[in-house]
Amino acid sequence: MALSSTATQPAPSRTARSAGAIVAGIVAVIALSLGTDQLLHTLEVYPPWGQPMEEPRLLLLALLYRTVFGVFGSYLAARLAPSAPMRHALIVGGFGFVMSILGVVAALTTDLGPLWYSVAIAVVTLPGAWLGGVLYRPR
């Protein structure tokens, strides 16, 4: 009787894979958003960090790419989910929604820029997460 020299690793539990899918989606959205922000600040498209951004076209640009990244992060979570892909996509969106509501509160209490931008981010977050889940259709 020959024993295999390669030890088999136990498969990650469904819970671990589920949590990993959600974390991957959230990290993707944050990394892409902050990376793009940094790039636009470095290229001097955006004002320096710490200064409020008031220009509507720049805020619309930020809203656009953050929405696209949110859809992608939810798609990624759905793609990596061991089951119930839409649920995973919406959990990523739920996290984004909570964070965006905190952004609305911050915009109400400090001078970070126009309130409409923070509200718009909150409004598009859950529909974007749903779209990310819909775009992932297991084949």
Quick description:
The chain is mostly helical and 139 residues long.
Q: How would you explain this protein's 3D organization?
A:
With 139 residues, this protein is mainly alpha-helical. It has one domain. It is 72% helix and 0% strand. The radius of gyration is 19 Å and the shape is elongated.
Features:
elongated, 4 helices, 139 residues, mainly alpha
Largest sheet: none
Please provide the count of β strands. 0
Number of helices: 4
Structural class: mainly alpha
Low-confidence stretches: none
| Separation, N- and C-terminal Cα atoms | 41 Å
Provide the residue-averaged pLDDT. 92
Structural shape? elongated
Order of helices and strands: HHHH
Number of domains: 1
What helical percentage do the residues reach? over 70%
The radius of gyration is 19 Å
Question: Into which percentage range does the β-strand content fall?
Answer: under 5%
Write the layout of secondary structure elements.
Blueprint: H1 14-42, H2 56-80, H3 85-109, H4 115-135
Helix pairs in contact: 1-2, 1-3, 2-3, 2-4, 3-4
